[in-house]
Amino acid sequence: MLKKLSILLLAFVSLPALADSSHAYANAVLEALQKKGLLSEHDVADIKQHAQQAELQASKPSVAKKTSVKSAVNNLVVATKKNVNKASPNIKFWGLAQPRYTFVPSKNGRQGTNSFTLRRARLGFTGFASDNVAFRFQYDASNEVVGLSNAQKLLDAWVSLKHFDDSLGSITVGQQFALGYTRRPHKSASVERKFTEVLSPGAVGRARGLTIRKGNMGLPETNSKGYFGNRVHYALGLFNSPDLSLNNDNNDLLFSAAFALRPNGISPSDDEYQFKDRPLAYSVGAAYSTSLDSVTLDTKFQPNGVELDNEWLSVFADVQAHHWWLWASWAEFKSDATGGLAVNTQGDNTNALSSSALTLGLSRAYLLNSEDMGWAWALQYQHVDNEHPSRTAFFRPLTGKSTDELARGMNQGSVYQAIFTWQFDENLRLINELAYYDPTDGKFNYPSFISQLQLSF
């Protein structure tokens, strides 16, 4: 898209009727493209030469003027496209650091938490190897929780073919977001992943496999437009099947499908804090996945060799208007141990595991200047009913694997969250979250406070 935009922009500013004698505007555009690595110094010189030739042709007698200008502009566009295509691949590097402070008071004889951790420390790059081949790589070096598998660290590593974006969709191969999300996780409304995101296929929402995605519901794997003016989006996926230990390598396959509607053709962003005024946008969608699960330690199968038949279902809705944002999502994860028994989070033997989660959220942003400084508040309610032992570790605001910390884990209950966020600029935010955990599975309720700095570049 950036290449096409540069071509049109260069052609536009080079027309004799619009360019002044100094060509200052056109030269500034060329210099900007050169700085971004899209054009070399030699390419810029060639394009300027073509522009001068086009202007000379346009200044000839009026009999041939119309034809000459059209021919010169066409030649300019062709030459510019050729120069842009042979320029270095457009690669963008980025990073994300999230140091945070966590406080949980001592209660009922349980030791509290009062610590600083590094929630995320991510580095990545994305770009195009050619016009129709995109790539993305992202690695997380934070290692906040000891003993995470490698899949938790290498987050994104894929190649996407864009040859069929206008018809079938983008074809992406590698480690990528599983379709159970139906969209990217929200950017920073809360400091932890939502319960509904945890009850989805894959580790940290990722899986290794092949997808076909049409429409920007599939960001970042594709930014293609959906059908009927961006109103209908879909995705199909075939992945390595994640077992309950989340290692994505149990020799079975995961089949996934997702569908979404954008009734007015406008896609909401992935940032719940709308510091920039945007028009009304709303969307609804759903995703379904199914796979078999091999024997894993945390399910404690009886007898050994029993396979689980897994199913994931998720639905979501988003409404955005100006500086307001409303989101809702629901997820369900079921595992059927036909022919055997598994042990649920309560320690009971059962032939089926069933978990569900609900998330509701509302935010309002306020811009303090004409650019990007501002503040925002958000309210979020979550409810969970979890029976899968492998998902237990996510339902707490604590880190690590100690017995005392696991004792605060919540498999059944609600969480009430009040969030205040200050945005210093587009790349720096301070997120303060006060949460109240209210378990219904026999454990005690407790508050928590988390303050997290989010720096992106």
Automatic annotation (TrEMBL):
Keyword flag Signal: yes
InterPro entries named among the record's database cross-references: Porin_dom_sf, Porin_O/P
Organism field: Cycloclasticus pugetii
Keywords: Signal
Pfam families, per database record: Porin_O_P
Residues making up the signal peptide according to the UniProt record: 1-19
Gene3D superfamilies: Porin
Highest taxon listed in the record's lineage: Bacteria
UniProt name for this protein: Phosphate-selective porin O and P
